[in-house]
Design brief:
GO terms for molecular function: heme binding; iron ion binding; monooxygenase activity; oxidoreductase activity, acting on paired donors, with incorporation or reduction of molecular oxygen. Helix content is 48%, strand content 11%. By secondary structure, the protein is α+β, with helices and mostly antiparallel strands. The strands form 4 sheets. A 6-stranded mixed sheet has the order 1-2-3-9-6-4, with helices on both faces. Strands 5-13-10 form a 3-stranded antiparallel sheet. It has a two-stranded antiparallel sheet with strand order 7-8. The chain binds protoporphyrin IX containing FE. Protoporphyrin IX containing FE binds next to helix 13, helix 14 and helix 18.
Length: 399
């Protein structure tokens, strides 16, 4: 059978800027409008082919031979030229080698040793929050755990953590298009890279940590020293805001869906699926790009070699073609196939840790809290990539 391909110039165009402040604050109507236009949509503003539907996003993520990450995953040509040397921005054997260097530390077996300590930390964070009248679920619940765990795991010097959150958020922001938002973030992200280089130069890392293991590999001659700073950034940068997003969205969703909270409290074995449902419903990462290695076909659209394709995880996770009631939050949904952690070769290397932290927080909340109430209107952060609350005032009513 001969397939008639559509020329890229006939792809429907979407004119609004999906990275504008208002679209960042309320992205879902844009995602819906793009999905309705078709499987491939030309973003006039950013000169990208966007994939708003689930099936094309998943297929693209799984074909890493055709849809490359090594030329960068940002929607921004300048950043794509600068950001080389990370696991996220590499392909094939190079990617496998980088991933093997560190990812074993994030596997369930390696994380098992952390389990009790994380549970204890989560309990004490919740205990403190319960003792106060109103707390900010972002600063007082969601941030404490990732910030207490990942920098130690990576080996970041203990006295140099004041800027980590800000630098990490900036490192996501610059992966958006070349808008004012990413231009403003660039100096802070470069600061993080320079600082990581200094940490490596001065060998100022925690003993037994990931950084320590990488420096040992340098001493043994199996790794070049200049590869270490990007690898540290690789793990520290995506480990904070993403998990903060998942935990604070979970708190908000359970506060505003008390019947779902009752369900979870009645059956804590629903926690793993509840985490999938939170990540599906409020995907912490909006989108990354790929570059086509050669002429390719997505749905019925023929794309040239070197085209930039935007994979919209957050839109795929609300695609009405894939989900029966995509805009309903229900922890009994079959949410395991959500793509909020990506899919294929580049699927999130830290998801075991993110799930461990979010599970610990939900378990601690279930044990100690009867009801979660929203105390004031929450606000959302402005970031090209990260979708998370900025402030979320809540009251925890003790059990
Ligand atoms: C809820 C929390 C998290 C979410 C939603 C999330 C999401 C994602 C997504 C969508 C990707 C795929 C990127 C792509 O397709 O190009 C990814 C990759 C990655 N994530 Fe996460 N992430 C989370 C937490 C973490 C944590 C805690 C860490 C580290 C401790 C981490 C480290 C990484 C790394 C290293 C990669 C690159 C993997 C590769 O390219 O092979 N992430 N993450």
């Amino acid at each position: 059978m001969i397939r008639v391909l559509r020329h890229p110039s006939s792809v429907p165009a979407y004119r609004p800027d999906i990275y504008s402040r208002s679209a960042i604050l309320d992205p879902y109507p844009h995602y819906r409008a793009m999905r309705e236009l078709g499987p491939v949509v030309w973003l006039t503003h950013h000169r990208l082919y966007a994939l708003p539907r689930y099936s094309e996003c998943k297929a693209t993520l799984r074909d890493d031979d055709l849809f490359l990450s090594g030329h960068g995953v940002a929607a921004n040509p300048l950043i794509n030229r600068l950001s080389r040397g990370t696991t996220l921005n590499s392909d094939g054997a190079d990617h496998d080698r980088r991933r093997k260097l560190v990812a074993h530390r994030m596997m369930p077996r390696a994380l098992r040793t952390l389990g009790d300590a994380v549970d204890d930390q989560a309990r004490s964070i919740v205990e403190q929050a319960v003792s106060r009248k109103t707390v900010d679920a972002v600063a007082d619940l969601a941030t404490s755990l990732p910030l207490a765990i990942v920098p130690d795991l990576v080996g970041w010097p203990s006295d140099q953590r004041a800027h980590l959150l800000d630098w990490a958020a900036a490192t996501f922001d610059i992966l958006g298009p070349a808008n004012l938002q990413s231009i403003k973030a660039l100096p802070r992200s470069l600061h993080m890279l320079r600082f990581a280089r200094r940490v490596v130069r001065e060998r100022n890392v925690l003993p037994g940590s990931m950084a320590h293991e990488l420096l040992t590999a340098v001493d043994e001659g199996s790794l070049a020293v200049e590869e270490v700073p990007p690898l540290l950034i690789d793990y520290i940068a995506p480990s904070l805001d993403t998990t903060i997003s998942a935990i604070s969205s979970a708190v908000y969703l359970f506060a505003t869906h008390p019947e779902q909270w009752e369900l979870l409290k009645g059956d804590p074995s629903l926690i793993p699926n509840a985490i999938n449902e939170v990540v599906r419903y409020e995907s912490p990462l909006r989108a990354f790009t790929r570059k086509t290695a050669r002429a390719s076909v997505i749905a019925d659209v023929g794309l040239p070699a070197g085209a930039r394709v935007l994979v919209l995880y957050a839109s795929a996770n609300r695609d009405e073609r894939e989900w029966d009631a995509p805009d309903v939050f229900d922890i009994r949904n079959d949410a395991g196939r959500q793509v909020g952690f990506g899919s294929g070769a580049h699927a999130c290397a830290g998801q075991g840790l993110a799930r461990l932290e979010t599970t610990a927080m939900l378990k601690a909340l279930i044990e100690r809290v009867d009801r979660i109430e929203v105390a004031a209107e929450p606000t959302w952060g402005i970031n090209n990539i990260i979708h998370r609350h900025d402030r979320l005032p809540i009251r925890l009513v003790a059990a």
